[in-house]
Automatic annotation (TrEMBL):
Family: Belongs to the ABC transporter superfamily.
Record protein name field: Peptide/nickel transport system ATP-binding protein
Annotated organism of origin: Paenibacillus phyllosphaerae
Keywords from the named record: ATP-binding, Nucleotide-binding, Transport
Membrane-traversing stretches: none
Length: 201
């Protein structure tokens, strides 16, 4: 499968163009890094690629078709700020199980304490809530994961463990992974290809 950004341009309101004519393609099975300085539009680009935001011009195609607007999303975005990606009125267990039921070994490998599932999002740290969001995104029908500064809020050891789990799963299921980060070391270590966001548009 291929996820493709076709000449995507974005501006907010009457502000300057944030980026123009960005073209990029991600194949299943690939681990691609997206690098760029803070504020250049990486998160906006990811939201558009996942169908959470609209582009001003251009379109996103999944195997030559528009992204499905209903039902489970084959392109899952893991947000930089997990607290903005969840319904604060749902307990963590309901959030995690919205689309599927991760099993015990998945919880273990993401280091999710089952006790957290009975808590409200405000009762979890950012890193704990992020692990719930990662589990939520790893449903069997996910084909692409866009990881937007996914582990920035985690300490180095937890970060390494989570990436190991996600990379193994991505490889075994042949998912495509886009790793958005300003951390060149992380990207060099895990990605097969790197895109500099500023060279896209
Ligand atoms: P990055 O992820 O590369 O740091 P972002 O996509 O988060 O960049 O933001 C790029 C620019 O767009 C920033 O200047 C930000 O203030 C602006 N921006 C992001 N979201 C909105 C919005 N909803 N309305 C107006 N401006 C926005
Ligand atoms: Mg960002």
């Amino acid at each position: 499968m291929q996820l493709e950004a076709r000449s995507i341009s974005k501006r907010y309101g009457e502000e300057q163009w944030l980026f123009r004519n960005a073209n990029a393609a991600l194949q299943t099975g690939e681990v691609v890094g997206l690098l760029g300085p803070s504020g250049c539009g990486k998160s906006t680009f990811c939201r558009i690629l996942a169908g959470y935001d609209s582009s001003t011009e251009g379109e996103v195609m999944l195997d030559g078709e528009r992204l499905p607007s209903k039902g489970y999303r084959p392109v899952q975005l893991i947000f930089q700020h997990p607290e903005r990606a969840v319904n604060p009125r749902w307990k963590a267990g309901a959030i995690m199980n919205e689309g599927w039921q991760p099993d015990g070994s998945m919880l273990e490998s993401l280091e999710i304490n089952p006790e957290w599932l009975n808590r409200w999002p405000s009762e979890l740290s950012g890193g704990e809530l992020q692990r719930i969001c990662i589990a939520r995104a790893l449903a069997p029908h996910t084909r692409f994961i866009l990881a937007d500064e996914m582990t920035t809020m985690l300490d180095a050891i937890t970060q390494a463990r989570i990436w190991k789990t996600v990379l193994e799963l991505a490889a075994s299921r042949q998912m495509g992974l886009m790793v958005v980060s300003h951390d060149r070391h992380l990207i060099d270590r895990i990605c097969t290809r790197v895109i500099d966001f500023r060279s896209l548009g």
